[in-house]
Design brief:
single chain; about 475 residues; mainly alpha; about 0% strand
Length: about 475
């Protein structure tokens, strides 16, 4: 029976998804209008096929191009716009930069340098990555931070694999390191600029209530939350779910030193890739300052990423290959591009836009209101829980933009300070950990090949509840002492 199930699991997964789709179409369990019910049914079909691994993730992500026009949800032109959203090109630019870093072995040099500092102990390496990624992501876009750390982490995994016997410990180490940089980027909630939903909500409060949430006030409350989340992330990944038992050893340490010596001084291509990389990072960090001082050019994360990508094809490498000059990147190098992840995220954006256009978010807010209670702690818990799990299938920025007015109205009707419910909703929107399309960092690390869907779902489910509990505690006990609208 078990063999038969394993042999036919793809077909069973396909049938399960179709049956769930038909149930939602014909039973309409939430008594929705025709169009919103169709959108929800397609969402159920896509999520079930993603979760059950019925088809390759990118193939499932193409379903909106077929189903939305067929069911008259939106036109083919409108649907396909989602597959060329600006965030897709941010990914693309970051992936090109990663390919160039890998092509010229710069990632290996950085990785060996990190291991030289942390030693070959698996736990110390992972803790180092979590703390470094979390700190950077408090000041940089979480997507940009993950893109910076991704090729370095991949190289560290390779170095450790060379050093250790393959097996369960290596798999756990690889999986944990990849997940840690994504989740550490997501959990960097300690500054207003740490994640896009924070910025969106602060702007909404400023426009709606003429109240400016102070940068310092935010840090006082939520930097401690970030620190606790990062150490909880380490404990959940390393001590509970995926212990790697990779110990520091002198043989491994000697191997690292020998590899560093073999690399020798920085080569010309390494220097030039380093320059492009450093300029890109500096532009990501200081783009707001640059934009505020002049209006001739306006920069954002995507433009900067594409500038880096194009420059890699322009800047000569300084190496002659087969009597021809070469650039830092040549088009054949793009065979390594994770094109499937770009399609996957495009499908996620298309689905999120359809959910928003069908006003399912507003109806969800009304549903929340119907379960409202006079207990503030319970309401914070409900709103945070809903926000975290909803952001698994919806753009977290779009979610905050749509939900902020709903949650504010709900709070006012319950005679609660809007910030008491609005901020936990905002923080929860950044913490989706179960699905690759939940946040851009999730999608980036999923492209590594070290993470299976079942691993991300299991780990993400645990971390979602950790985030919900900690956000609820901080927003109930600490936030009102520092930030109050009324």
């Amino acid at each position: 029976m078990k063999k038969w199930f394993e042999y036919n699991k793809k077909e069973l997964a396909l049938i399960t998804g179709v049956l769930l789709f038909l149930v939602f179409v014909f039973v309409n369990p939430f008594s929705l209008a025709t169009k919103p019910n169709l959108v929800l049914s397609i969402a159920v079909l896509m999520i079930s096929w993603w979760v059950l691994d019925a088809l390759p993730l990118a193939v499932v992500a193409l379903l909106p191009i077929i189903l939305f026009p067929v069911f008259n949800i939106s036109s083919i032109k409108d649907v396909t716009k989602s597959y060329s959203d600006s965030i897709i090109y941010l990914f693309m630019g970051g992936f090109f930069l990663g390919i160039a870093i890998e092509k010229w072995n710069l990632h290996k040099r950085i990785a060996l340098g990190i291991i030289n500092i942390t030693g070959t102990n698996g736990n110390r390496i992972i803790l180092g990555f979590i703390l470094a990624t979390g700190f950077l992501s408090m000041w940089l876009s979480n997507t940009a931070t993950t893109m910076m750390m991704f090729p370095i982490a991949m190289s560290v995994i390779h170095v450790i694999e060379v050093n250790q016997q393959s097996g369960h410990n290596i798999r756990n180490f690889s999986l944990t390191l990849m997940l840690s940089i994504a989740y550490a980027s997501n959990f960097a909630l300690g500054t207003i600029i740490g994640t896009p939903p924070n910025v969106a909500y602060v702007n909404y409060i400023s426009d709606k209530f003429n109240y400016n949430i102070g940068f310092t006030d935010w840090m006082i409350v939520f930097t401690p939350l970030t620190i606790v989340l990062l150490f909880m992330l380490y404990w959940v990944l390393v001590k509970w779910l995926y212990p790697n038992n990779i110990k520091h050893n002198e043989k491994g340490n000697q191997f690292i030193k020998e590899e560093v010596e073999k690399l020798g001084p920085l080569s010309t291509p390494e220097k030039r890739v380093s320059i492009v990389f450093i300029i890109t990072v500096l532009l990501w960090i200081f783009k707001d300052l640059i934009n505020s001082f002049q209006k001739l050019v306006v920069l954002d994360d995507t433009i900067i990423a594409m500038m880096a990508a194009v420059s890699l094809f322009i800047v000569p490498s300084g190496k002659i290959v087969e009597e021809k000059k070469t650039q830092l990147l040549d088009w054949p190098d793009t065979k390594k591009m994770a094109w499937g992840i770009l399609i996957l995220f495009g499908g996620g954006i298309a689905l999120a836009k359809a959910l928003e256009d069908a006003k399912l978010m507003e109806q969800f807010g009304n549903f929340l209101a119907s379960y409202s209670t006079g207990n503030t702690l319970i309401m914070i818990f409900i709103v945070t829980t809903a926000s975290v799990f909803l952001s698994e299938v919806m753009s977290n920025v779009a979610q905050v933009i749509v939900m902020a007015p709903v949650i504010s109205s709900l709070a006012i009707s319950l005679h609660i300070d809007p910030l008491i419910l609005g901020i936990p909703m905002t923080l929860g929107a950044s913490c989706a950990s179960m699905l690759p399309m939940g946040t851009p960092p999730n999608a980036i690390v999923f492209a590594s090949g070290h993470i299976k869907m079942k691993d991300m779902i299991k780990t993400g489910f645990v971390l979602n509840w950790v985030c919900i509990i900690l956000i609820t505690i901080f927003c109930y006990f600490l936030q009102p002492m520092i930030m109050r609208l009324v």
